[in-house]
Amino acid sequence: MRSGRAQGDLFSNPTLIGAVTVVVALVGVLLAYNANNGLPFVPTYNVDAVVPDAAELTEGNEVRIGGKRVGVITSIDARVRAGTPSANLELKLDKVIEPLPRDTEMTVRPRSTLGLKYLELRPGRSRATIPGGGTLPVGQAQPIVELDEVVNAFDDETRAGLQGVLRELGGGLSGRGADVNRSIEALRPLMIVLAPVAANLSARDTDLAGLIAGLSATTGAVAPVAARLGSLFDGAAVTLAAVAAAEGSLSEILREAPPTEAVATRAARRVRPVLTDAAVLARALRPGVALLPRAARRLAEAVETGTPVLRRATALADRLGETLAAVESLASNPAAEGSVRKLTEVVASLEPTLRFVNPFQVRCNYLGLWTRNATEAISEGDANGTWFRFIPIVQLDENLQAREPAPGLHANVYPHAGTDDECEAGREPYLPGRRIGNVPGNQGGATEITAPPPGTPQP
Question: What are the two backbone dihedrals, phi and then psi, of residue 136, each rounded to the nearest 5 degrees?
């Protein structure tokens, strides 16, 4: 009975109950205050990360992988090594991601437009890992571009320059759609011809590296007479000045050129048998021509052997020597041949792009319409800058999150632009209800034909 009464007295003591309540509340507040830095008695995976710029990160900022929070930054220390500043971040990460690959990359990203940041980690594929207490080196930190840097790039001078470029480009392209169309159509035959040329350049038998080495040797031989070459250009300038003074005579020569060409055409018909014999001779010389690459390589070796002798005989300029060394390094670089081969592949891959761009402009004239309208969009402003003219259409049900798209949502992300004989972009009718994707029916195979501004001379 006494023990039950003592226990009852213990729980009925208001002072004791208040003290226990205060202690529990203090423990809860302490846990909530330190929640951002991790809960106590929970094992963590601690590593350091060195970045060139902390970009206004603070202690307690999150560390994320793929958008998911995996830890926090516990401390930030500034360092200067070999005159280069950097910031060392101590990271407290969850055990579930241990260990990180050694080639993991890191980037400081904005969490909101108010300046809140977080550190993003992108694990690599290396089998080597970073142990607890290890460090991610500064070489694996990606560059950071702040929002204010992007905005400051478009200062008054830049905006004025962009506006002038768009205005001049619009005036230059307006009304010249036919010329642009012919230019785009002419690119396809050029690419077809350019592809085998690039393939020949990248072929092993072409010996592009030997050609560059030969050019290097030729430049080395010309270097001693560089002063004479300068006087040659001075003489050429005097000759060209004399030609400019004889402008009337040149005009007379150009007028006589068509009759002369007609006479040359008749003479060419008469010498056709001689050309036929020359073709037969050229075919007969083909075995000898096949030996020319070997002879040319031997000649190149002889030139390379004689080059040191010429250097001892005549001093070369220091800058020219550095240039020749750079050219020789490029010629001996095994990546040069691969670069030409990759260029060949790029040229071949342009054909599908041109197949799409051709109807995009030739049939729909989207480039001309854009350049004409873009100048009007930013044509007004004041001393602080130009303005974009637009009309916002606010639909609350389209701005709030929902399980399904809004009933009146209209979205055509990939309109038909010159494909299937249809120019759909900018001509879609506003149909009632929800419309996502291409609208039904054909919206026509042509758009508005742009014209030059008033006063623009016609070509």
Answer: -90, 115
Quickly tell me which residue has 């963590």 as its tokens: 44
The 10s digit of each residue's pLDDT in 93-105 is 888 888 889 898 8
Between CA 337 and CA 343 the distance in angstroms is 10
Quick one: 328 exposed, middle or buried, by C-beta within 10 A (0-12, 13-18, 19+)? middle
Residue 99 preceded by cis peptide, ω within 30: yes
With contact defined as beta carbons under 8 Å apart, do 450 and 387 qualify?
no
Determine the Cα–Cα distance for residues 245 and 303; give it in Å rounded to an integer: 43
Q: Does an H or E element contain 89, and which? A: strand 84-94
DSSP for 19-59, written as a single string: HHHHHHHHHHHHHHHTGGG--TT--EEEEEEEES--TT--T
In the beta sheet, which residues pair with residue 122? 105
Q: What percent of the chain has pLDDT over 70?
A: 84
Cα–Cα distance, 411 to 425 (Å, whole number): 11
Go through the chain and tell me how many residues it has: 459
